[in-house]
Predict the 3D structure of the following.
Amino acid sequence: MARAALDWSIRDLARQAAVGVSTVTRFENGQGEPIPATVQAIKLALEAEGIRFTEHGVEMPALGGNDE
């Protein structure tokens, strides 16, 4: 999960996406039909931290130090 890769709580994602905690919870649990603007806000918040959404799925940023 992208949020977990960033070590974000539900509250962290909600704050970064400017949506409610309950909105993120419902979205993650697949409850109801999400509003497109909400999906976009969550997507943009994650992308701002390096998460990439591609046709192959989700690409996470490299975590940890640089070995070079």
Remarks:
- The first helix runs from residue 2 to 5.
- The longest strand covers residues 52-54.
